[in-house]
Amino acid sequence: MFLQSCINRDCRAEYHIDDRLYVCSRCGGLLDVDRSDPITVDPTSLRDLWRGRLSSLEARDRSGVWRFREFLPFDHDASIVSLAEGNTPLYDAPRSADYCRLPQLKLKHQGNNPTGSFKDTGMTVAVTQARKLGARLVVCASTGNTAASLAAYAARANMLCAIVVPGGQVSHAKLAQALDYDAKVVEIEGNFDACMSAIREFSKDPSVYLVNSINPFRIEGQKTVAFELAEQLGWRAPDHLVLPGGNLGNSSAFGKGFRELLKSGLIERQPKITVVQAEGAAPFARYYAEDQADFVNEENPKTLASAIKIGAPVSWRKAWRAVSETHGSVMTVSEQEIADAKAMIGRDGIGCEPASATTVAGIRKLVAEGVIKENENVVGVLTGHLLKDTDYVMKYHSETLIGPDGEHLRGRFVNRPIHGQDLQDLQDLLD
Ligand code: F0G
To answer: In Å, how far from its chain's centre is CA 99?
Structure first.
């Protein structure tokens, strides 16, 4: 019923669903998980079935990923590795909306997952597949969140886990998670891209399973966020979906999710998908701006949004498919724009980590440029929790945030703690 197929139009090689592959063995192209036969259940029954599962007490029904298992490549009674991921809130964000000059704005907070980032929705599926394949060791390269997530799911599955991270460049919170979940942590000298190529080489060993987003099972889990979002909007897609781009797995997953929803008659049209990158780590934005000439990796990516400090995104072809078929776009935002947007999201009582704030910064620019119209429905995706990087937050609010080129980032929404013996300042608030 499910198989793996090469996304390269000139190749289209097909593989068994349980072949341990990351790319096409014939042409090196990325792989998709596909159905060999169309789904036969009608949209109304599927919507009712999925909604009904929300009131079930069974773990596989309560997971926001496995709730949609009719679209996942496993038998329905498969043994799953789950931490009750997904089912994340879609918040109204009035202050952020105002900041973007929109009457309303919704933020889908993927930071409300078990390990605090969207990676959990992919990891539950990838680690379930790893266990099914009998892998001895699960591994990934990471800027921190994939590491924390894999470490947790591997611990749940009682599997060995190793992660490779750029030394000194991962936030303490993310590293602390991986250590506590008992993963082997290897810090190498070099950036994320160097970690990625080292671990891809290491994963040639057949007892090792690589679960970066090049692994199509990760994308299968992450695509269900599109299902959940469509459901939250009454089975309608927004006009615009805006999300951050690093290694470009998440953009690929949203693209696939909405494509499948449309094909199955669950929604009537796809949202325009816009990917936002930090100015100093923007190979995908450059590819878009230069009319898709050659894709050129960024040798020395730079940004304080460490989660997306990536110069050689492995999934760019899939992400490009998502952007082009939805008539979306790819853009950049500055370090200052990220910092201020992040503080504004905090003022909505929501909060997120720096990489996530690229979305609100991006939406603000798209409105100013007239790409997003006032009457359109816009959803921004927040990918990670505020507590993932408190060092950044404290520096912003004490006006000591220094950008990657040594520039002083001036906080427009600074909220300095007050030091003093009496509460006169509080009294002033009331006067
Ligand atoms: N936002 C956050 C918080 C992330 O951690 C990442 C990626 C992204 C956005 C970008 O998503 O790579 O799918 O385009 N973090 C990876 C990691 C690279 O290792 O945790 P993407």
So the answer is: 23
Write the pLDDT tens digit of every residue in 65-109: 999 999 999 998 899 999 999 999 999 999 999 999 999 999 999
pLDDT higher than 80, residue 421:
no
pLDDT tens track for 324-372:
999 999 999 999 999 999 999 999 999 999 999 999 999 999 999 999 9
Report the nearest-CA residue for atom 19 of ligand 1: 142
How confident is the model at residue 414, as a pLDDT?
96
Closest ligand 1 atom, residue 244 Cα? 9
Q: Is the pLDDT of residue 259 over 80?
A: yes
Atom of ligand 1 nearest to the CA of 356: 1
Do residues 362 and 105 touch, judged by C-beta distance below 8 A? no
Q: Distance (Å, rounded) from C-alpha 196 to C-alpha 186?
A: 12
Ligand 1 center from residue 44 Cα (angstroms): 34
List, chain by chain if needed, residues with CB within 6 Å of any ligand 1 atom.
117, 119, 142-146, 213, 244-251, 307-308, 353, 355-356, 383-384
Bridge partners for 165 per DSSP: 187
Upper half-sphere CA count for residue 181 (Cβ side, 13 Å): 29
Q: How far apart are CA 285 and CA 327, in angstroms?
A: 15
- The conformational region for residue 265 under phi > 0 = left, psi -120 to 50 = alpha, else beta, is left
Distance 1 CA to ligand 1 centre (A): 31
Q: How far is the CA of 265 from the centre of ligand 1 (A)?
A: 30
C-beta separation of 61 from 53 below 8 A? yes
Tens-place pLDDT, residues 25-54: 999 999 999 998 888 889 999 999 999 999
| 245 CA to centre of ligand 1 in angstroms | 7
Query: Model's pTM, two decimal places?
Result: 0.97
- Select from 192, 200, 308, 385 the residue to mutate for testing ligand 1; criterion: most ligand atoms less than 8 Å from CB: 308
Q: Whose CA is nearest to atom 10 of ligand 1?
A: 246
Rounded to the nearest whole angstrom, what is the distance from the C-alpha of residue 403 to the centroid of ligand 1? 20
Q: What is the pLDDT confidence band of residue 429, given thresholds at 50, 70 and 90?
A: confident
Cα–Cα distance for residue pair 196/45, rounded to 1 Å: 42
Query: CA–CA distance from 286 to each of 185, 275, 281, 363 (Å)?
Result: 33, 12, 10, 18
Cα 250 to averaged position of ligand 1 atoms, centre (Å): 8
Can you read off the two tokens belonging to residue 68? 């949609």
In the predicted model, what is the mean pLDDT of residues 201-209?
A: 95
